[in-house]
């Protein structure tokens, strides 16, 4: 599990790592002889002193005590060194096995390459015969292709003339619509197999987007609203400019300017479906939910999805809420992003965390409302009309790799984290011992109560309480914050977004560790287990009241009372020189 640079270090065997050492080679003293020498010194010291003992015997006894202490320390240091040597031996064997497997794969590939070259050299005559057979087939295939092209052009000309005269065949349109609907259903079924461990595959969905752009008929029956994200600032002459594109001109390094003050979301088609998630066991939230559902349906004509629990509460309130939709099992939740255009949360930060955890892939824009949102109609009117400012909140993709796994790809079900992942000592009274790596580079060994790996959105949560920095949520990065470290020089770090952080429990750890993801789903990390954390490809877009920076500063002022202090009195002494 450890990087190869550390695993390849020379080590000693398990047989040599025992507490005793049978051969006194290379300065290694037999521990049994040390034990007998120490025992003899103790017996000599415990003997009854002679009546006429002088000062020389007293000094000699003190020297014997010093020798006994030195022998004891040497034995303890030897046992510790042998235990560490056994650990390096195990790592060496693991790395050696891994290298042997890779060499076997490489040798297998080389054998296949040699066989392929031999087949090319020995089968030249067979290839010429195949070409003689295939050339006529290719000729007739080209002829047929040309004929099909002419037939298609003729049909298009007939269809164009029929549309011009207003005599379009309705049956043909119906058949084409049926074909496009069948194609859409097949695409949905193909998306069902694009999930692994409940997380949507980024590459597969990206390929589907390119395919959907080439299919013009699908836009006619698409259920989700489309939108576009763009950078914007306050006017062309605004002073909000950032530099992120590096260019080289005449040997000088410069950066190209682009406006990147905020991210703006603009709807390209009207939203049709809204998902409302509420805080449970709250009377004020229940009243607000009833008003919002009725307003969205009657005034905006939108389809409304709620949780099964909320639908039961709405039907108990009135039978007129039968139009509200919900899901039956967890398998339908994994496909909500294909139906929902907008997510509305009624509650606090915990409700937003719950909304983000429901989507294992793309997340629709989230509009959070607090418990005292009285003017929700004006806000939703602005959101549905667009454009709106949003904040892309990055998430961490966390995977647990057990010690018995053959490679890092044999992991358990991954977790998507919006705030932080915490590795702590649990109920154990011992300090947590964790080895930390960043892209196979050793970072440090954590000894303390634990470690926090946080996103920038979670920088004002647990990480802040542990001494971490407050970071703007649109700054991409991973916060590395220790919890009550055993060293005063252990300060928090902020790592770039592209790295992969590996947290491993070493074999010499006194106790296992526990990992929790956004405060839930605790996992036991035994000796040899590792936790891999990297930036997830699916951020969480949240709507802003004003803009991202204004909302962030207002939240730390109002919510955290940042730098709130009593103003200094002006009645005191003043500088006479001013």
UniProtKB/TrEMBL annotation:
Catalytic activity: NAD(+) + ATP = ADP + NADP(+) + H(+)
A GO biological-process term: NAD+ metabolic process
An annotated Gene Ontology molecular function: NAD+ kinase activity
Stretches the record annotates as Disordered: 1-25
Statement: the UniProt record of this protein carries the keyword Kinase: yes
Keyword hit for Membrane: no
Superkingdom as given in the UniProt entry: Eukaryota
Enzyme class: transferase
E.C. numbers: 2.7.1.23
Residue stretches of biased makeup (Polar residues): 1-11
Family matches, as InterPro entries: ATP-NAD_kinase_N, ATP-NAD_kinase_PpnK-typ_C, NAD/diacylglycerol_kinase_sf, NADK
Positions in coiled-coil regions: 71-98
Keywords for the protein's UniProt record, in alphabetical order: ATP-binding, Coiled coil, Kinase, NAD, NADP, Nucleotide-binding, Transferase
Entry-linked Gene3D superfamilies: Probable inorganic polyphosphate/atp-NAD kinase, domain 1 (3.40.50.10330), Probable inorganic polyphosphate/atp-NAD kinase, domain 2 (2.60.200.30)
Entry similarity comment: Belongs to the NAD kinase family.
Protein name: NAD(+) kinase
Organism (species): Gossypium mustelinum (Cotton)
